[in-house]
């Protein structure tokens, strides 16, 4: 592995078997599966942003020193570095357009008159992508969230769990987790199948022997199998400006701009994986002249409703001695327990219930917060999918990286508004079940706040013009070019999508392994 490649014109190979664009968890999943299943294949991964953590791609929350952690977040914010950020979703309530740390927003083109737009659509530009900054919730899709034409979806999700290092017990030592789940279950679980009942949130996080939490980023997805692969190279500060195809329309390589020297090079490749996120993957394809009709369309974000409550009887339930013990063991952190209320087709919201050690709204000075007793409730809603919700690209304007500027057209339908209204009622009911509401009413986040954008390079069972890629993530219109990331998900999901998009990447990587081996 070559994370600190030398600054000279020859840092890129002339030719590889597989070129991967983007070092987020889905690009990393391709590198990992290929390293495991296709030893001997040469793989080059190109990442536009800098390396901000060690091992490369590691979550910045694992950086103990606050100043270094903050510097890593800033270095991930691309053209937005230096702008004010907000640290928790609940805090976006002011209506300001502010990004979460480690991410940046679009300067313009995020909304048009008469449309809702995606005012807080965000991106990260760093080795690890958003997975260096994420919350790491990895629920499985259920009901209509699932991709019905993939018979092997569950096995792929198992693999994604393995790659992301998903656990359910990292917060078992935290106070009140069981209380929260018990109280939620009492008002939710009736008539639900076991898989859809209230439960611990699967999280890509584990606890070390010394008690410290380790959050998974792309470093965990890459794993030792990739880091030890002598045929794998990671090139940071390397922007891919074009995917190259041959005269027959097949993958031929990439054009990459070394952001240190400013020089552009060509790297030939037998397969190209574009894993640049749901906005920049279609951007790069469009810039390359690869423009299938569904490209950028069916864009969907999960409308998000938030509310806060305070656990009833917290003082009585957590005697001081037990709280001190928990704090000494380091079980508490920015959030100290996450519970899951799964999506169902009848109740079409995904609930992410986080226990916090600080209140998102000011409490009286003489009102100390029992750690873990503040409960931040979030419900994510599945979007009513429409082809006209889309990201387009300008012929005559560029973004801060010199790539075609994005123009987002996005509307919430009457059905979306009805679902959001229902979610607002439901979240108040859940908040009251857990404890005493802190907020006077729920807050609906501005579109884009979920950080879960999907559909723009969607997968389809057949090439019917409504999808961009095959069930193996290979472009219908450019064999050998694969797409990865949340943009590939064709369904309207409400659950956090990364586990699903890593699962889809596993399938694509296996396809590359077998198809290139046979040539
Ligand atoms: P990304 O992680 O976005 O990585 C894409 C990378 O590609 C970027 O580093 C970018 O710089 C690079 N790139 C783009 N274009 C080019 C180019 N032309 N050349 C070279 N490089 C390029 N998801 C969940 O499922 N659960 C959660 O709990 C959750 N919480 C989140 C909390 C926060 C604060 C944030 C920021 C995100 C959260 N997400 C969560 C979203 C999750 O992080 C993303 O779904 C996931 O990282 C997407 O992976 P990806 O590989 O598709 O893209």
What is the approximate shape?
Answer: globular
Q: Count every beta strand, where a strand is a DSSP E run of 2 or more residues.
A: 20
List bound small molecules. Answer: flavin-adenine dinucleotide
CATH class of the largest domain: Alpha Beta
CATH homologous superfamily title of the largest domain: FAD/NAD(P)-binding domain
Integer-rounded radius of gyration: 22 Å
> How much is the average pLDDT?
91
Quickly give the CATH architecture of the largest domain. Answer: 3-Layer(bba) Sandwich
Q: How big a fraction of the residues is strand?
A: 15-25%
Task: Give the termini distance in whole angstroms.
Answer: 26 Å
Low-confidence stretches: 1-8, 328-334
Q: Give the biggest sheet.
A: 7 strands, mixed
Count of the separate structural domains: 2
* SS-derived structural category: alpha+beta
CATH T-level fold name of the largest domain: FAD/NAD(P)-binding domain
Q: List the helices and strands in order.
A: EHEHEEHHEEEHEEEEHEHHEEEEEHEEEH
Helix content: 10-25%
